[in-house]
Amino acid sequence: MKFIDEAKIEVIAGDGGNGVASFCREKFRPFGGPDGGDGGKGGSIYAVADRNINTLVDFRFSKLHKARDGENGRGADCYGKGADDIMLRMPVGTLIADYNTGEAIADLTEHGQKVLLAKGGEGGWGNIHFKSSTNRAPRQKSDGKEGERRELRLELKVLADVGLLGMPNAGKSTFITAVSNARPKIADYPFTTLHPNLGVVRVSHEKSFVIADVPGLIEGAAEGAGLGHQFLRHLQRTGLLLHIVDLASFDESVDPVKEAKALVKELKKYDESLVDKPRWLVLNKLDVIPEDERKKRVKDFIKRFAWKGPVFEISALNREGCEELVTAIYRHLEEKRNAEHRAEEMQMTEEARGIASIDPDDPRFKIID
């Protein structure tokens, strides 16, 4: 299935049915009074997050989604039938925004999350609601309200724990193939990865994390060079970035340090928060470098790049150093989760203390019988 991570759709909720002005005319009730029923409610349109869907391809070819109108009311106190709601199932991680204003409507982050996109119109009232002691034969009725209509932009940001960042042909696809169940296309030319790939990395039977590989970023991407920034949104939800660098380029005119700095510069242009994320340096393709030159080349790169964070030396092709890197990643993610849990527990404890410290004699908390 082709990966689609953007789509524009139009949603039109159903109109409410009209109320009716009617009077009871039966054999033994020639002047039975008003009996006009209400119109039915128009169908609404909802978005539902579904973890079994991983692309927006269905919405690329199905752009218009319209709910049915409610039925009109009828005599003899017959109310119009309300229209069924429409449920649009979308991948977890979909960001929904108004196409014209850019206003964010919803962010689907959990399976089963349900969000109203367009509300159906309310049904009109029949004349049965207008009767009174002074108006026994009302001829008033009201029409149903129109349903909401919106143009929406859908943007899928894949949910992953770790994101791979690097220039084309840095070995990102080879790395994700070596450590996970993902099988992206691998070739000896740039931009073999044309869409994000997700892979599950299993440290043990019960320990795993998700890693995302996005197309390579090159200098000038902000001006539209290469594939631009269109896939960097998928790195915004990750907890850790791996900056993979090709330390053994066959082209002698290519400077790995210059490329690495250019990539960080383009990253800042897109979103400075990405630069502030935890980022590890992964020096790849060391198997191509003679053993007596590896230490010198690694040391020289780190010095010129002025890097002070964690550094890992690997060869994704023969999986050298990959196991140590995967283990370190899992430990980092586990420590981050534990810290978040501790913070939540402390917050709950503070809230509980605040409730316990309420003075029962305080007039603001007076108990009303």
Overview of this protein structure:
By secondary structure, the chain is α/β, with parallel strands linked by helices. The chain has two domains: 1-156, GTP1/OBG domain (Spo0b-associated Gtp-binding Protein, Chain: A, Distorted Sandwich); 162-333, 3-Layer(aba) Sandwich (Rossmann fold). It contains six helices and 14 strands. The N and C termini lie far apart (63 Å).
What is the averaged pLDDT score?
A: 81
The H/E string reads EEHEEEEEEEHEEEHHEHEH
Number of domains: 2
Termini gap: 63 Å
Number of discrete helical segments: 6
CATH-assigned homologous superfamily of the largest domain: P-loop containing nucleotide triphosphate hydrolases
Low-confidence stretches: 187-192
Strand content: 15-25%
So what's the oligomer here? single chain
How is the biggest beta sheet arranged?
A: 6 strands, mixed
- Count every beta strand, where a strand is a DSSP E run of 2 or more residues: 14
Radius of gyration: 30 Å
Strand order of the largest sheet: 10-11-9-12-13-14
Would you tell me the structural class of the helices and strands? alpha/beta
CATH architecture of the largest domain: 3-Layer(aba) Sandwich
Q: What is the CATH topology of the largest domain? A: Rossmann fold
Global shape: elongated
Q: Report the helical percentage.
A: 10-25%
**Name of the CATH first level of the largest domain:** Alpha Beta
